[in-house]
Automatic annotation (TrEMBL):
Signal peptide start and end residues: 1-28
Keyword terms of this UniProt record: Signal
Transmembrane regions: none
Alginate lyase domain span: 47-247
Record-linked Pfam families: Alginate_lyase2 (PF08787)
Full protein name: Alginate lyase 2 domain-containing protein
Keyword Signal: yes
């Protein structure tokens, strides 16, 4: 009787151990993925983006690029990025054509829309209205930066944005509604954002792990931006850093 009991128990334990190994293996299989598979990386250099920063300070007071690292910072007391704008302060790498800003500058700041300034208008940008697009970048947010959007998919309808990734008290959030990563401060993370315009879907990956899949928010004109754009409850100083920024498009 007791021999039978022990052999049964041994059998059960063996089965449990095998199950644990199986579950462990299947978890290991769902490890990080490469979200850029099937996408083509597009040319990207200074001609493809411009810096939006408080209109009354020189660019090098809010943005630097050295050793491959873009650093964007802004203060809660800063001015908007243009005289006519009523938005919160921002320093953003805008991977879009300069057209609208240029018109704004021409209308309101014609004095500083000089030849020297016009010379710096990027001739390229990645505004898009269809297809499947992807932003990739390695981001870094130092402790203390809070109440700020660090990456956005610009353009929606009736809203202004399709996606905002914000930092509140050290957490990375989808707008202010969902925590994606509890603790984001002081560590480089790989960010991939996929925007399927036709399918109206947005996917976000951190370090190769899917953290958000949500619906688009309409609109016909989109672009990627990253940096710091003050939101509610913003800290006095806001900063984010970026490297290896890529814009990709799904190949046919
Ligand atoms: C960026 O790349 C384009 C080609 O895609 C080239 O024409 C342009 O001169 C480059 N600009 C800079 C600043 O390197
Ligand atoms: C962040 O923390 C501060 C202080 O603890 C708190 O007042 C604020 O509500 C928090 N913000 C969010 C969005 O949780």
């Amino acid at each position: 009787m007791s021999t039978l009991f022990f052999s049964k128990a041994k059998y059960t334990i063996t089965i449990i151990i095998h199950l644990i190994i199986l579950v462990h293996r299947s978890l290991a299989l769902s490890g990080p993925v490469d979200p850029t598979q099937g996408f083509v990386s597009l040319p990207f250099n200074r001609s493809y983006y411009h810096i939006q920063k408080p209109y009354d300070v020189p660019e090098d007071q809010r943005y630097s690029f050295s050793n491959g690292i873009h650093k964007c910072w802004v203060y809660s007391t800063d001015k908007p990025h243009s005289l006519s704008s009523r938005t919160e302060p921002r320093t953003e790498i805008a991977i879009q054509l300069f057209e609208t800003t240029c018109v704004e500058y021409r209308t309101h700041l014609h004095l500083i829309c000089s030849d020297r300034f016009e010379h710096h208008f990027p001739p390229y940008g990645y505004g898009y209205s269809s297809g499947v697009w992807q932003f990739e970048g390695y981001g870094y947010v130092p402790t203390g930066t809070s109440g700020v959007c660090i990456m956005q998919v610009f353009g929606a309808s009736p809203h202004a944005t399709t996606l905002m990734l914000r930092v509140y008290n050290g957490s990375l959030m989808y707008y202010r509604s969902q925590v994606l990563i509890e603790e984001i401060y002081d560590e480089w993370f790989r960010l991939n954002v996929i925007h399927d315009v036709d399918g109206s879907k947005v996917k976000v990956y951190i370090d190769g792990y899917p953290v958000l899949e949500t619906d688009g928010r309409g609109g016909t004109s989109h672009a990627f931006k990253c940096g710091v754009y003050a939101q509610n409850d913003d800290s006095f100083y806001m900063e984010s850093r970026w490297r290896h920024i890529k814009v990709l498009r799904k190949s046919d």
